[in-house]
Design a protein that fits this description.
- Helices cover 42% and strands 12% of the residues.
- With 368 residues, the chain is an alpha/beta fold.
- Strands 3, 4, 5, 6, 7, 8, 9, 10 and 11 form a 9-stranded parallel sheet that branches.
- A hairpin with a 2-residue loop joins strand 1 and strand 2.
- Helix 2 runs antiparallel to helix 11 and helix 11 packs antiparallel against helix 12.
- It is globular and about 55 Å long.
- It starts with a helix and ends with a helix.
Length: 368
């Protein structure tokens, strides 16, 4: 692994936080009924039109260019790249291999980049590089709950320091071209104390005042990490407080039904599917179907096969033959939860170490 790889992915990724409940083929048929008065619609982030309110969140170690392209093809209205450190972005132009982290392509627009760091002075040059790389929106991460991130005063730590968080927002908004919207990702606070709630509101209102076009709010605190339920009641309160300002919700969105239920119950303008989209890019197509009053059809094993093979092909163009099997193994493992024989398929993907082994597992479990 290169120094660039270490400076970003090893620093951020927390595999324990990406446990995803089993679903897909093991779930009963959906009984979701769209309320007659509810009609999902698109929204705008600044001058960027998002045509449907279910989008793909930033996922460290996952939402790279291949994953985003697959998600867009299967209905994601907007995708976010994996969270990147400001210092990493400033260095990334020094190596062609590392530039895969900021790769964009015509078919995935609109696409956003998520940025994280501790020093307000480090954000502006990194944000400019991401805009130059072709990202349509720049998102600031004030919500990551990973311990090593918090220990370096990044991510969710900034929710405890409103002055620093708002200085970052102001500095980045000042340097970005006017046509590039700036957004913020937050959790509902560092913890459940009154001080944390006050800090949340100070950052939330201050960010909009400084020019943020939208804010995504995760319904858990930083201290919770991914334990316990996401507080959707808090999201509803935040949206009522925000009024016409654009608010997206996050937390516990593992199915298309979850996505639409959050929209219905909280009134947020959009929702960001995170862990629920790993290995299940069909969540976006299913959400569109449910919103149109149609059934959320489960992808056949043949379709899953084709998408898995295409995802691998795209990953090979990004990481090369020698690195792709290790990178794609985690997608196979999490994707196995959609298979009727989930446990056996998962065990086979766990053992994958080469391209031939990946294709052998797909051939074995996913018929043409």
């Amino acid at each position: 692994m290169s120094n660039w790889d270490r400076s970003n992915s090893e620093f951020i990724t927390d595999q324990d936080s990406l446990t995803v409940p089993a679903g897909g083929a093991t779930q009963p048929p959906s009984s979701f009924v769209l309320p007659p008065s509810f009609r999902p619609h698109g929204f705008r982030i600044g001058n960027v039109a998002i045509d449907f309110p279910v989008v793909q969140a930033a996922l460290s170690g996952y939402s790279d260019w291949p994953m985003r392209v697959i998600a867009r093809r299967l209905g994601a209205a907007y995708t976010l790249g994996e969270v990147l450190l400001d210092k990493f972005i400033v260095q990334v132009s020094k190596g062609s291999k590392a530039r895969r982290y900021i790769r964009t392509s015509n078919e995935e627009h609109p696409v956003g980049a998520q940025l994280m760091g501790a020093d307000p002075e480090g954000f502006p040059p990194a944000a400019l590089k991401l805009a130059e790389a072709g990202f349509d929106i720049i998102d600031l991460n004030f919500g990551c709950p990973v311990k090593k991130v918090l220990g370096r005063c990044c991510g969710g730590f900034l929710l405890s320091t409103p002055s620093a968080a708002l200085e970052i927002v102001g500095r980045v908004r000042d340097v970005l071209p006017p046509h590039i919207p700036l957004t913020v990702k937050m959790r509902r606070g560092l913890d459940d104390s009154q001080e944390s709630r006050d800090n949340f509101l100070a950052i939330f209102d201050g960010a909009f005042r400084l020019g943020a076009a939208a804010i995504t709010v995760h319904g858990r605190t930083v201290r919770q990490r991914y334990d316990g339920p996401s507080n959707w009641n808090f999201l509803r309160e935040v949206k009522q407080h925000a009024g016409s300002r654009i608010v997206l919700g996050s937390g516990d969105l593992f199915t298309a039904e979850d996505c639409l239920n959050m929209l219905i119950q909280t009134g947020v303008d959009g929702v960001t599917a995170a862990r629920g989209a790993i290995g299940n890019p069909w969540i976006f197509r299913q959400a569109r179907a449910l919103a149109a009053g149609q059934p959320a059809e489960h992808p056949s094993l043949a379709e899953q096969r084709e998408v898995m093979l295409e995802h691998y092909r795209l990953a090979e163009t990004t990481y090369g033959c020698n690195r792709t099997s290790a990178h794609m193994r985690k997608f196979g493992i999490l994707g196995s939860r959609m298979h009727p024989r989930m446990k056996e398929v998962r065990e086979d993907f766990v053992a994958v170490k080469t391209r031939d082994q990946w294709h052998a597992v797909v051939e074995k479990w996913y018929p043409r």
